[in-house]
Amino acid sequence: MKGTKFQLKVWKYLKTIPKGKVKTYKEVAIGIKRPKSARAVANACGKNPYAPKIPCHRVIRSDGGLGGYSGRGGIKKKLHLLRSEKVDI
Question: Quick check: 30 pLDDT over 90?
Fold first, then answer.
């Protein structure tokens, strides 16, 4: 994989989110021990060239909004992927 050290750390963490579950950008930031970096986590998700293999679609905003999706198909694809995993969105 190619990315910055921070991006690689985020993407590695994303692979630990189980199918059918979601986390917020803030929860991911806490999970990588960078609790004040939720915005940077969102940016790393947005730069993920490995979607959906690295499941950035399982990361949502703290207010329950979907946020963005860097993979082909954009936000519609993110919603489709989450629904296919039985996530109640």
Answer: yes
